[in-house]
Amino acid sequence: MAGIYIHVPYCKQACHYCNFYFSTSLRSKNDFMGALLKEISLQSAYLSKEKIDTIYFGGGTPSLLSGKEIAAIFTQLRASYDISGTAEVTLEANPDDLLPEKLEELKDTGINRLSIGIQSFFQEDLLWMNRAHTAEQSVACIKNAQAAGFYNLTIDLIYGTPGLTDAKWEANVQQAISLGIPHLSCYALTVEPKTALDHFIKAKSVSDIDPEQQARQFLLLMDWMEAAGYDHYEISNFAKPGWRSKHNSAYWQGKKYLGFGPSAHSFDGNSRQWNISNNAIYIQMLEKDMTSFEKEVLTPTDKLNEYIMTSLRTMEGLDIDHVKEQFGTEAAERISALSEVYINAGNMTVHHKKLQLTKKGKLLADGIAADLFS
After folding, report:
1. More confident residue, 108 or 219
2. Residue 232: which of 56, 358, 350, 355 has the closest Cα?
3. Among candidates 173, 152, 137, which has minimal Cα distance to 244?
């Protein structure tokens, strides 16, 4: 089984913290659609005819696409790939796009899962982030989606923002739980270079992030979600049993995927490639029946380090026996030895030769993984 990712590089406006590739001008959207359909056709051999189990529309703001545009994409996908009849098909959406008529339109396209960029249920937070939707729309869109028959929902929430008190953070999380949302993705605010937020902080017009606040709110989050019956199955992701994201889980498990659209990434098990992050060049190249991407072939060390990084982020953890089988006895023994200091410090546990981070250890996940790298 493999996955497909489609990057839709358009947004109504730029969120202050975002560093994903997108454009706020929709003038090239029709040309982009033609280029995208052609790329889907041209890349049909990439996954060696593996069955496609997940499709993910990301961005940008894929909910800016019309039902007809999404249907055209599905038509081309089905013509070029073996799509499973039970495939998970996710569309990222902004709350202001999810009006009842839009949701009915989406129901007819094959979309069966919505990932909604809520970020906060407080109007002042949304204004600070420069989000396009309102707090009222944050709640209304979820109820609209459920009324339209979309029950496989996930929402994004951001914590650690200046001005987000622990009480407000708890109110955000409890609102999501009370609305019956089966999956949450929760992210600490990061200041990415060259974003508006980065500029504002350097100009001292807004406060910088507080690492202690972020750590505290992450620990609180884990406690609240555990009490509500959610599995913390990946560092940033929580799901009711049976509602994990199949697409994202496949990525953490190292399965193959093919990306379409500007800046989209692909992985065939041995190499990675990523499309050019430029709408105009992406369109121009495909008008000539050519694709434009960079590529790197992964070494055994690269593959081991990626496994360390992704596996430690999951609740299943890092499987020492898997390392031994795939990368050799020396690598397995080295990781086991290095992990002892984290086990003794209470940052990691080991069960049946699987290394798993504790709640405290999850605060240090990236650093621990880097220390275990080959």
Report:
1. 219
2. 358
3. 152
Query: Which residue type does 158 have?
Result: I
DSSP string for residues in 285-350: HHHTT---EEEEEPPHHHHHHHHHHHHHTBSS-EEHHHHHHHH-HHHHHHHHHHHHHHHHTTSEEE
CB neighbour class for 293 (10 Å; exposed up to 12, middle 13-18, buried from 19): middle
Distances (CA, A) of 85 to 78, 89, 112, 156, 190: 11, 11, 12, 27, 38
Q: What is the pLDDT of residue 197?
A: 87
Note the pLDDT tens digit of each residue in 133-163. 999 999 999 999 999 999 999 999 999 999 9
Tokens of 132: 């396009």
If you search the block for the tokens 């960079």, which residue do you land on?
294
User: Which structural domains are found in the chain, ordered by start?
Assistant: 2-252 (3.20.20.70), 300-372 (1.10.10.920)
pLDDT per residue over 156-169, tens digit each? 999 999 999 999 99
| Segment 202-220, tens digit of pLDDT | 898 888 989 999 999 999 9
Q: Which of 91-95, 187-191, 310-314 has the lowest mean pLDDT?
A: 187-191
Q: 58-70 burial by CB neighbour count: b if 16+ within 10 A, else e? A: bbbbbbbbebebb
Q: How far apart are CA 3 and CA 19, in angstroms?
A: 24
Q: What is the pTM of this model?
A: 0.95
